[in-house]
Each structure stands twice: as C-alpha cells, then as structure tokens.
Backbone:
C-alpha cells in the first residue's frame, strides 16, 4: 500500500501557497513574488525528484492549484480596483483643472 503522506517539497509548496494567498490579501506584492519563486522552485524539485506520485501528492497538488486560482482572482480584483481608483483620480484632476480656471476669471 502506498504512503498517503505527500512529498516534503510538495508539502512545503502547499504551505507557501497559503503564505502567497495571505500576501496577496495584504497587498504585499514584494513578499508574494519571493514566496511564489520559492514555491516554483519546490514544485520543480518535486517534479524532478518523483518518478511516481503518491496518493497524497495528487490531493496536495489539487489544493495548491485551488489556492493559486484564488490568489490570481484576488490579484485581478485588486488590479481592477486600482484601475478604477486611478480613473477616478484622473477625473478629479481634470475637474480641478477645469474649475480652477473658472475661479481665476472671476
């Protein structure tokens, strides 16, 4: 019977996936990038080291994928929100510029 315990690199990649999600929630992109690079290194190590997956490995890979999807969705949401904020700031700057010239004419 195969051991259900996942590969050590895969288990660490899962833990890093949780940290990546937390960094995305906090908006800490520098930490997120470093954690993601380490996670990628571990996943590559797992791929090179393992000839045949164990039972627990598939479940961990699936969970890593789900966490990654959540992180990407969160980052896309933050990107859209930041874009809207920048658009609103531009509208405000144009309004200030338009009304400041009116005030000077009085």
Residues:
């Amino acid at each position: 019977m195969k051991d259900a315990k996942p590969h050590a690199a895969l288990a660490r990649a899962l833990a890093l996936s949780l940290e990546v999600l937390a960094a995305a929630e906090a908006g800490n992109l520098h930490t997120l990038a470093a954690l993601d690079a380490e996670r990628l290194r571990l996943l590559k190590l797992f791929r090179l080291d393992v000839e045949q997956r164990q039972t627990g490995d598939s479940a961990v890979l699936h969970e890593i994928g789900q966490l990654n999807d959540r992180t990407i969705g969160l980052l896309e949401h933050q990107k859209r929100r930041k874009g809207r904020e920048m658009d609103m700031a531009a509208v405000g700057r144009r309004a200030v510029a338009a009304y400041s010239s009116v005030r000077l004419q009085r």
